[in-house]
């Protein structure tokens, strides 16, 4: 039920979608003869998009998420295992074309290969099923296995968890798959903006992990300069808003112990 509700409400949780809906409502009111409230809604939606598209507000939203967990030190001790979260495949395109179609979170997959070379004895786990609300005959794990195998990674050396549909299920199903022993050191590889939520969920599931954030979308520093590319700001705002809403939702439903998990 939580999965279905989260997917349904995700449309209106998007600031861009919300602005477009409000703008469309304003146009509808104008066409219906209610010009004053219609113009107010339309102007408000346009102003919101202009501010979001060119101001540093998206950067302000993303920076606390990306900098919450530091990068993995170069001298970090060897782990017992490595967990790679799904989210790096375009599920619909991969299913349609029958091959791995990677999105802009590809560093999750390449970081896993780097770690594999550094720590060949560590257990490697990929966790990711289908995030489609309607379900799918294919899973992300299936296409990641094809992608890694094509790059020379022996499939027998990797555990693939293919039932999970969201990060909460990533944590629970991976725990049940690997049964981590007390004192074991497991690295968690996911996007830097997603790391606080992911770590909180794994901790609540009784699976302590060490963060290895990748896929940074900012420079890590704040500046008041205007961004000339509105599309970049829109993408960053969508990503950061999704994570903040996810943090609140998982805390309210008791799936994490902290609103903003820390190292």
Brief summary of the model shown:
Helices cover 51% and strands 10% of the residues. The chain is an alpha/beta fold and 263 residues long. The protein is globular, with a radius of gyration of 20 Å.
What does this protein look like?
- This protein has helices at residues 2-13, 15-31, 35-54, 57-66, 91-97, 107-118, 140-150, 167-178, 195-204, 230-252, and strands spanning 81-85, 123-127, 158-161, 186-191, 210-214.
- It is an alpha/beta fold and 263 residues long.
- The chain has two domains: 2-66 and 228-252, no CATH class; 81-214, HUPs (Rossmann fold, 3-Layer(aba) Sandwich), CATH 3.40.50.
- The chain has a five-stranded parallel beta sheet, sandwiched between helices.
- Strand 2 (123-127), helix 7 and strand 3 form a beta-alpha-beta unit.
- Helix 3 crosses helix 10 (230-252), helix 4 (57-66) crosses helix 10 (230-252) and helix 8 (167-178) packs across helix 9.
- The longest helix is centred in the C-terminal third of the chain and has 23 residues, at 230-252.
- The model has no long low-confidence stretch (mean pLDDT 91).
Q: Could you give the topology of this structure?
A:
Layout: H1 2-13, H2 15-31, H3 35-54, H4 57-66, E1 81-85, H5 91-97, H6 107-118, E2 123-127, H7 140-150, E3 158-161, H8 167-178, E4 186-191, H9 195-204, E5 210-214, H10 230-252
Parallel strand pairs: 1-2, 1-4, 2-3, 4-5
Helix pairs in contact: 2-3, 3-10, 4-10, 8-9
């Amino acid at each position: 039920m939580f999965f279905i509700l989260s997917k349904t409400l995700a449309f209106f949780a998007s600031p861009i979608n919300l602005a477009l809906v409000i703008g469309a409502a304003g146009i509808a009111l104008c066409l219906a003869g209610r010009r004053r409230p219609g113009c107010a809604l339309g102007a408000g939606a346009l102003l919101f998009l202009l501010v979001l598209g060119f101001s540093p507000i998206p950067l302000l939203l993303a920076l606390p998420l990306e900098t919450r967990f530091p990068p993995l030190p170069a001298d970090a001790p060897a782990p017992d295992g490595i967990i790679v979260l799904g989210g790096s495949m375009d599920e619909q395109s991969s299913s349609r074309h029958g091959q791995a179609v990677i999105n802009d979170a590809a560093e999750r997959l390449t970081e896993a290969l780097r770690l594999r070379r550094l720590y060949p004895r560590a257990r490697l786990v990929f966790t990711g099923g289908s995030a489609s609300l309607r379900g799918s005959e294919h899973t992300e794990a299936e296409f990641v296995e094809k992608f890694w195998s094509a790059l020379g990674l022996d499939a027998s050396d990797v555990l693939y968890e293919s039932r999970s549909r969201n990060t909460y299920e990533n944590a629970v199903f991976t725990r049940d798959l690997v049964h981590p022993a007390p004192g074991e050191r497991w690295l968690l590889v996911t996007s830097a903006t997603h790391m606080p939520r992911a770590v909180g969920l794994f901790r609540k599931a009784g699976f302590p992990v060490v963060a290895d954030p990748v896929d940074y979308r900012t420079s890590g520093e704040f500046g008041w300069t205007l961004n000339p590319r509105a599309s970049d700001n829109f993408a960053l705002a969508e990503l950061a808003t999704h994570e903040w809403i996810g943090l609140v939702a998982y805390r309210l439903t008791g799936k994490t112990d902290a609103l903003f998990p820390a190292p």
